[in-house]
Write a structure and sequence with these properties.
Blueprint (H helix, E strand, L loop, with lengths): L13 E5 L6 E6 L6 H6 L5 E7 L3 H14 L3 E7 L8 H13 L7 E6 L1 H13 L5 E6 L2 H7 L4 E6 L2 E8 L4 E5 L8 H18 L1 H16 L2 H20 L14 H10 L9 H18 L5 H13 L16 H8 L10 E6 L5 E7 L1 H12 L5
Parallel strand pairs: 2-9, 3-4, 3-5, 5-6, 6-9
Antiparallel strand pairs: 1-2, 7-8, 10-11
Bound molecules: nicotinamide-adenine-dinucleotide (NAD), the ligand O=C(O)C(=O)C[C@@H](O)[C@H](O)[C@H](O)COP(=O)(O)O and zinc ion (ZN).
Pfam families: DHQ_synthase, DHQS_C
Family: Belongs to the sugar phosphate cyclases superfamily. Dehydroquinate synthase family.
Function: Catalyzes the conversion of 3-deoxy-D-arabino-heptulosonate 7-phosphate (DAHP) to dehydroquinate (DHQ).
């Protein structure tokens, strides 16, 4: 991945620019950034801000953010939703749109997503459709949302037919990733977010994957490695998004592990108690490498190295690790058939020739996938 240079005009924090023409914005990363959020958001020139958050994050951070915005002369309101993947729903979308309209948010005003990827995707989608588009700011509070979902403008909700099937592209105006907010994040959610960090190394940066193998404990513990992992992940994602904002080509690489992962999320009924997105991605990453090895594309040793690293952090890597079961081969194939990368009825996978050597593989025959899933579900038969 090409690296975007970090700017150093505010040496306290790392700035990663996302140069998308008239939709360009900055991602700021660092400990303590939230204390400057009121002033930074106020600089966008809005008169009012509707903060969207969830019941875990709201009590920790929403009041302070609302007060900071009010101190800058903005009218602030807060809408709080239940936590978890089930909140990315039509019903929540209606709730958020109603709250934003009730708060009289005008086109020049702001929606502020304060939370993880669930809140970011939902609030971003509401911002995209209310009054046919109001601006929004991402204040991501999970590792996953800081390294992935707050960047790049994919917004949306889930459908009973599949993950993120109703949505649009709507870029934020600013992303403020305060890595100190992750100090309150449960370890299960740290691990889930870490799957998306490792993903960037697996896509096209073997050196970053090796760095992850050596430094993941520092990322979890909140050392300087955490800021470095968040900033490097944002640089990697921003570079892809700038090349291919609307996923006509290369951006699909960011979907490594997701064809399997999204199918597992649908099969587990978006029940965060059973499986969260990052866990589905971890299993999906391990499967994508084992599938690549089974097809003779990738050394088996690389697939083993991927699994060893994800397992070392405590992430699941096998279909058998899905609590309550992962369904049958037919159920998995049925769920994968709704993947957004499907073309002419055929599945597209992101496969790999090795660590850091992923590629887009369209037209994968269902029989090959069936054979692979069968061997994963029934290892004794293969
Ligand atoms: N738009 C994109 O490009 C993109 C990229 C990756 C993932 N996603 C989406 O992101 C979602 C997953 O996001 P997530 O992993 O952040 O999950 P999440 O939003 O459900 O947050 C995980 C949990 O952590 C809690 N939490 C959040 N911040 C906290 C904090 N600082 N302290 C304590 N608790 C906190 C939340 O309340 C929730 O219970 C999925 O829906 C996925 O599809 C979108
Ligand atoms: O930003 C992207 O592009 C990604 O694919 C990032 C993924 O980690 C993320 O889960 C995304 O929401 C998946 O997109 P989808 O288009 O497959 O729903
Ligand atoms: Zn993802």
């Amino acid at each position: 991945m090409t690296r975007l240079a970090a700017r150093t005009d505010d040496p306290t924090f790392i700035t990663v620019p996302v140069p998308l023409g008239d939709r360009a914005y900055d991602i700021l990363v660092g400990r303590g950034l939230i204390e400057t959020a009121g002033a930074r958001i106020a600089r966008l020139g809005a008169r009012a801000a509707a903060i969207v958050t969830d019941e875990h994050v709201g009590p920790l951070y929403a009041e302070a953010l609302a007060s900071a915005l009010e101190a800058q002369g903005l009218r602030a309101s807060v809408v709080t939703l239940p936590p978890g993947e089930a909140t990315k729903s039509y019903a929540s979308l209606e709730r958020v749109c109603d709250a934003v309209l009730a708060a009289r948010i005008e086109r020049g005003d702001l929606v502020v997503a304060l939370g993880g990827g669930v809140i970011g995707d939902l609030a971003g989608f509401a911002a995209a459709v209310v009054r046919r588009g109001v601006r929004f700011v991402q204040v991501p509070t999970t590792l996953l949302s800081q390294v992935d979902s707050s960047v790049g403008g994919k917004t949306g909700i889930n459908s009973r037919h599949g993950k993120n099937l109703v949505g649009t592209f709507h870029q934020p105006s600013l992303v403020l990733a305060d890595t100190a907010l992750l100090d309150t994040l449960p370890v299960r959610e740290m691990r889930a977010g870490y799957a998306e960090v490792a993903k960037y190394g697996l896509i096209d940066d073997e050196r970053f994957f090796s760095w992850c193998e050596a430094n993941w404990q520092g990322v979890f513990a909140g050392g300087p490695e955490r800021d470095e992992a968040v900033a490097q992940s944002c640089r990697a994602k921003a570079a892809v998004v700038v090349r291919d904002e609307h996923e006509n080509g290369d951006r699909a690489l960011l979907n490594l592990g997701h064809t399997f992962g999204h199918a597992l999320e649908r099969i587990t009924a978006y029940d965060s108690a059973r499986l969260v997105h990052g866990e589905g991605v971890a299993i999906g990453l391990a499967l994508a490498f084992r599938f690549s090895a089974a097809l003779g594309l990738c050394p088996a040793a690389d697939a083993e190295r991927v699994e060893a690293h994800l397992s070392a952090t405590g992430l699941p890597t096998r279909l058998a690790h899905v609590p309550g079961g992962c369904g049958t081969v037919d159920e998995l194939l049925d769920a994968m058939a709704q993947d957004k990368k499907v073309k002419g009825g055929a599945l597209t996978f992101i496969l790999a020739r090795g660590i850091g050597q992923s590629f887009i593989a369209p037209g994968i025959e269902a029989d090959k996938v069936r054979g692979f899933l069968d061997s994963e579900l029934n290892p004794s038969r293969s």
